[in-house]
Amino acid sequence: MFWKLPREVFDLVVSGLPHNDQVALSTVSKGLRAALATVIWNRIRVDVQRRGTDQSQPRVNSEAVTRCAIAFRQPSAAIRQVTQLELLCGFGTRHYLGTPCPHPRPPPQGGQRGQHLIRLTKAHAKHVADIHAERQDHYNCVVENTISIIESLYEGQLQEFSWDLCTCVPPALLETLAKRHRHLASLRLTTDYMCPGPPGDENKVVDFSPFRHLKRISWKGLPSHNACQLREALRNNSHHLEELELDLYKAYPKIFPHPGRWKGEAYCLDFWRGMPFDTRFRDDILSMKTRQSSKPAFPSLRVLKLRSAPLDLENATRALCRVIDFAALESLTLWYCCGWEVFLDTVQESTGTKPIKLRTLEVKCTEDRGEYADIARFVGSFQGLSDLFVSLSGEDFREPDPDLWIALPQHRVTLKRLVFHSRFTPGMRVDYYCDCTNLGLPRLDPTFNPMSDLDLECLGLSCDPDLLPPLLRPFTAKSTLKIFHLRQTGADLNRGERCRALDLPQIDEPDCQPEEHNRVTTLRSLPYDTLEDALQDSFRALLDWAFGPHGIASIQLVAFGDFAQGRNKLYLHNLFVCRAESRVDKGGPPYRVFDARDRKHEHEWATIVRPHWSFLEACPVGSFQSDSYYRF
After folding, report:
1. Which of 5-9, 247-251, 596-600 shows the lowest mean pLDDT across its residues?
2. Could you please report the per-residue DSSP string of 66-127?
3. How far apart, in whole angstroms, are the C-alpha atoms of residue 68 and residue 257?
4. Rounded CA gap, 359 and 332, in Å?
5. Which helix (H) or strand (E) holds 403?
6. What is the spatial distance between Cα 43 and Cα 18, in angstroms, rounded to a whole number?
7. DSSP of 226-274
């Protein structure tokens, strides 16, 4: 059958199969093995995270990179097919727990007088030193073998490189990459923003000038001393750059290293000590200080993702609108960017008479304030959105404003995926935010249902399950809605908020310690035999209605929990509920409930979920990189 398909159709079919199925198919015959070689070997992904018996302390599996390096040293025609190399630590398997650099941090500046230092015994100090040495050895092994892999490939063969290990990228590795694969089209780095760099290489500047063909640049967790390298990469690839993702979380700390710690003109940290934040962002990242041209510096940019960018300062906002043609942008993501409201207004003004062509808009505001009227005004100014992901927070968000609901019909023809998430401060605790339980619907006309005019495929909401059947009832007469995500922030669950899907123990229940509330790791920790038995009554009622004869016939999956940042964590917080009509004949419910970490039954929901991970992970609460780390 496969031989009757045109090659383009064959590649399209097999590309949708899981990797293990592709490998199994390649063993059927020599012809299929040859035909699948390009698909299987095109991308090499090495997950360096290993979990031992204590899953809360993951370790780096340097042996995985070692085995890959040994395989690449063997001559093979398959290696000639490799164009993508990815090193990740749990991102690909959605179990990221963090493994930052083993290098020592510089001591904090100031505030040391009067503090009592903890004196370690000789035995304890030796134990700590041994642990640091082990982590350093793992790190060195990963780096050395990664360099070996890069050198094993033919010069110019690699097109995409990803380093998603939350560690600094050693200068030696980047130099090897720049020397042998200068025609890279994609460079993605996830680094440790606190790391000063490998000992001995702190002051070393890697020349990024060989990279002049990059179409995609992503740098998350940017250390401040790497800003010059990012600026060089942006300047050399500005005319053909199509995607740009920047996470500037603490890229410019308020307290700089001691004068003279960083030497060399390229870092210039002493120069930036007295400069305003927006000036440093504008000049050190965007390289706008000497720019005179009125034309956009990034004419080909179509995807822009910013996190923790200082958009509340006019210089930064105006600079971005000068260098980027927002009328041509197709996807815009703003996470924790102060001043995003004014920025959106400036974007609208900068396009002039040109229509905005955004297909995807994602906004997660800082956990202090946000106005739905601001984003509703921007959303209502154009048409054509396919994805709209919004999560705003405020002190008075117990009952969110309905402005955004009123603006949604503007995109009724094209809107397919929607996330609506509100957070507020309960009581007088201004530093404590939690999910809202209603959607601002009580403030609307009772006869108005915003879902009546929308043909959504994916919908994510954070509210009580009791409110959902009336809201979702218009989809009972449609055949569009496939995935519904009942969102509940994982951090809230860990702080004792009641779970809206599972009957998890609460902090005030007997035999529940404060540090253990809601932190259930397995079903064995609950007095239930199955996940179906452990469901909250209101969530079970929602599932019985949605998958029942009077529910939503098109719905394939209901997801619950917090999938943001690619993290599924260790706890029983995330669920997938799939339709299973065959169970009705046996007297069971028309659905099955799965722990999202259950890889044994992953095939029952993966084909539905895999194309929509960006929808489930939208609008994360918190940083992908915690300040309290798990280390090498």
Report:
1. 5-9
2. HHHHHHHHS--TGGGG--EEEEESSTTTTB-------SPPPPPSS--TTPPPPPPPHHHHHH
3. 38
4. 9
5. helix 403-407
6. 13
7. GHHHHHHHHHHTTTT--EEEEE-TTSS-SSPPPTTSS-STTT-HHHHTT
Q: Between vectors from CA 98 to CA 245 and to CA 623, what angle results, nearest 5°?
A: 50
Residue 415's Cα: distance from chain center in Å?
A: 22
Q: Are 249 and 221 in contact (CB under 8 A)?
A: yes
Angstrom distance (rounded) from CA 304 to CA 384:
17
**Per-residue pLDDT at 162:** 94
Q: Where is 176: in which H helix or E strand?
A: helix 171-180
- Residue environment code for 579-594, b if the CB has 16+ CB neighbours within 10 A, otherwise e: beeeeeeeeebbbbbb
> Which residues are within 8 A (CB) of 460 and not within 5 positions of it... i.e. 6 or more apart?
389, 418, 419, 420, 421, 484, 485, 486, 487, 615, 616, 618
* Residue that has been written with the tokens 């929602």 in this structure: 542
| Cross-strand partners of 291 | none
Q: How far apart are the first and last CA of the chain?
A: 49
Percentage of the chain with pLDDT > 90?
33
Nearest to 490 by CA among 528, 518, 510, 458: 518
Q: Is 306 helix (H, G, I), strand (E, B) or coil?
A: strand
Match 């995985």 to its residue by tokens.
64
Please check whether residue 619 is in contact with residue 362, taking contact to mean a CB–CB distance below 8 angstroms. yes
* C-alpha to C-alpha distances, 74 to 23, 61, 78, 80, nearest whole angstrom: 20, 22, 10, 12
DSSP string, 370-382: --HHHHHHHHTT-
Question: Per the structure block, which two tokens stand in for 390?
Answer: 């919004």
Residue 553 has pLDDT above 80, yes or no: yes
Closest of 453, 455, 457, 419 to residue 439, by C-alpha: 419
What's the length of the chain?
632
β-partners of residue 208 are none
As a whole number of Å, the CA-based R_g of the chain is: 26
**Strand 458-461 relative to strand 434-435: parallel, antiparallel, unpaired?**
unpaired
- Rounded to whole angstroms, the Cα distance separating 221 from 194 reads 8
- Is 489 in contact with 423 (CB distance < 8 Å)? yes
- Which of the pair, 52 or 583, is modelled with greater confidence? 583
Is 76 a residue whose pLDDT tops 60? yes
Single out the residue of 568, 623, 494 nearest to residue 100, CA to CA.
Answer: 623
Question: Mean per-residue pLDDT for 104-115?
Answer: 55
Q: Express each pLDDT in 199-242 by its tens digit.
A: 766 566 678 889 999 999 999 888 877 888 888 899 899 999 99
d(CA 321, CA 345): 11
Q: Are strands 331-335 and 43-47 parallel, antiparallel or unpaired?
A: unpaired
How far, in whole angstroms, is CA 183 from its chain's centroid? 26
What is the CB neighbour count within 10 angstroms for residue 437? 16
pLDDT at 445 over 70: no
Global pTM value: 0.86
- Packing angle of the helix pair 340-350, 372-379 (nearest 10 deg): 20
Calpha distance 387→614 (Å, rounded): 10
Per-residue pLDDT tens digits for 292-336: 677 888 999 999 999 988 887 767 788 888 889 999 999 999 998
What is the phi/psi pair of residue 570, to 5°? -105, -10
Mean pLDDT value of segment 46-57 = 57
What is the arithmetic mean of pLDDT over 451-462?
A: 93
